[in-house]
């Protein structure tokens, strides 16, 4: 069976052929053509178009074409479920869905930049997704340092050295910025790094580059989300405050976004976290 899509694939148009070949159609052939020619050549060659608007195999809502193929062909595989989130996050620029999404985007963009022939790019992409599938099947829960005691020791020594060094030489702007971020988190204000850099009289590029050195090895966005989650955890000790209000008070646009980020940082949904607080009597019973 022939499948056809737009030329110059990057994420979905590499991931989908790999998924089709592995789980749907082992004899599949793939055709890459300019966008304007996809539907015409699909008719001429009796090929199935995918990942373009207005066809069956495409994006639906916040899901990408990879998700649709999994649903359409009832692919029930735990590793594919993991990969689907990574592909969706990379293809829709929602890297909060899966930590690995940003990495997949970087690798895919680099491959597309280096390889100008779409079919050579597809062949290389298959190797990337074969590796990703092996990782998702066998290595998903493993951390790099846990299998290498020597590297883990070096990492711990480096962190202690870095912490002591940065603590001793922490610039004045770091202390000021911590207070400004906390004030704006408490006041439920949107936090803009350009505005903060202007108030601190620092170049925004310099602030972005230096930020992680002094803020728990996190970038600006992740640090702000961490502070908001910490505030949410504190608010949850009061059983009278509904979770929807806590989401608002901590600056999240909606409860689903709040729940997703909260679970990413704590491992529990907000409701489960609150139940756990009751179990350890942090929240008084009967209130």
TrEMBL record:
Q: Which SMART domains match?
A: HTH_ARAC
Q: Which UniProt keywords apply?
A: DNA-binding, Transcription, Transcription regulation
Q: Where is the HTH araC/xylS-type domain?
A: 175-276
Q: Which InterPro entries match?
A: ChrB_C (IPR018634), Homeodomain-like_sf (IPR009057), HTH_AraC (IPR018060), HTH_AraC-typ_CS (IPR018062), Tscrpt_reg_AraC-type_HTH (IPR020449)
TM helices/strands, residue ranges: none
Which Pfam family, just one, is annotated for this protein? HTH_18
Identification of the protein by name: Chromate resistance protein ChrB domain-containing protein
